[in-house]
Amino acid sequence: MSSISKKDYEERKLFVERLTTLVKSEYEEIYRILKRSNETLSENANGIFFNVSDISNDTFNKLKTFMDFCMENRSEQDQRIKALEALRNETDAISAL
């Protein structure tokens, strides 16, 4: 097992927590990043597994960049949904007059 700093450990821990929020297509991209980087994976009927502590810093940075992209997209989507709901409410209020 590789030795990582406390900061790296915390970043990787946050990454693992965020993994649970991904959808299938995003999981598939995580898999592709790991495969392209020749990281060690374990596969069985329950899924694909990897030890986030053992992947290289380069691979982790690619995964982190992708995760940040996913989280930013979710945030932007939430903002768009809220804006649409506000417009719908305004439209409903005007229609009720």
Task: Reconstruct the topology from this structure.
Elements: H1 6-19, H2 24-36, E1 42-44, E2 47-49, H3 57-95
Antiparallel strand pairs: 1-2
Count up the helices. Answer: 3
Helix proportion range: 55-70%
- Outline the biggest β-sheet: 2 strands, antiparallel
Strand order of the largest sheet: 1-2
Compressed to H and E, one letter per element, the order equals: HHEEH
Q: Would you tell me the overall average pLDDT?
A: 91
Shape: elongated
- Rg over C-alpha atoms, rounded to the nearest angstrom: 19 Å
How would you describe what is shown here?
- With 97 residues, the chain is mainly alpha-helical.
- The protein contains three helices and two strands.
- It has one domain (6-95).
- The protein has helices at 6-19, 24-36, 57-95; strands at 42-44, 47-49.
- The protein has a two-stranded antiparallel sheet.
- Strand 1 and strand 2 form a beta hairpin.
- Helix 1 crosses helix 3 (57-95).
- The N and C termini lie far apart (68 Å).
